[in-house]
Write a structure and sequence with these properties.
12% strand, 213 residues, five-stranded parallel β-sheet, alpha/beta
């Protein structure tokens, strides 16, 4: 028996962690169960429309949500791809460090997304803001810029939704005040959308975009 394991058993750390793990997973399941499925479905149809109309999906977030924005862009762009079918176009605007730092340095960090959206987004595109709090200034300015150009806006958030609730066409609020559970649910939802959109792309005729049902 290792000295570390002996210490854990003597101090009860293993038992404490087991209970912590059970409680965390139970809370995560409960949070997932309380997510409004009708809103989840509404976002799916937004993605379907984007694919059908060959629109671009643009994603933004901060911190862990920035990582998820990049992850989701890969899942939508690469994870849904099928031979002979038109691709779903998705891009994360958190990935270009020189652009991000240029706007942060010359303007402010609050402008790092809005300025990119003004350059990249077109009417009919879809802009996702991923924000646990729903109140990050750069997310709010990004949503405002998206609306200016006529893009559809979607927010994944938590807590009470924050200020973003009034700035998005569709807002999915994870019913939790625990940031880790909020992020757990956001990741699970993006995986759901990737799998659903993969079927849409694969089932579409080679000469036509997919049909969402």
């Amino acid at each position: 028996m290792s000295a570390a394991r002996s210490l854990h058993e003597k101090t009860g750390m293993t038992a404490d962690f087991t209970e912590r793990a059970r409680a965390y997973l139970a809370d995560a399941r409960d949070t997932l169960d309380r997510i409004p499925v009708q809103v989840v479905e509404k976002i799916f149809h937004v993605l379907c429309d984007a694919y059908r109309e060959d629109r671009q999906v643009i994603l933004m977030g901060n911190g862990g949500s920035a990582a998820l924005a990049s992850h989701f862009a890969v899942d939508l762009g690469k994870g849904t791809a099928a031979a002979g079918r038109r691709r779903l176009r998705a891009v994360s605007i958190v990935d270009n460090t020189p652009v991000m730092t240029a706007y942060a340095n010359d303007l402010s960090y609050a402008d790092v997304f809005s300025e990119q959206i003004r350059a990249l987004a077109k009417r009919g595109d879809v802009v996702f803001g991923i924000s646990g709090s729903g109140s990050s200034p750069n997310i709010l300015k990004g949503l405002a810029a998206a609306r200016e150009v006529g893009a559809t806006t979607v927010v994944l958030t938590g807590y009470q939704g924050g200020k973003a609730i009034d700035m998005a066409d569709v807002t999915l609020v994870v019913p939790s005040d625990d940031m880790q559970h909020i992020e757990d649910c956001h990741l699970a939802l993006t995986h759901l959308y990737m799998q659903a959109m993969r079927e849409v792309v694969r089932e579409s005729p080679i000469t036509e975009p997919g049909r969402c049902q």
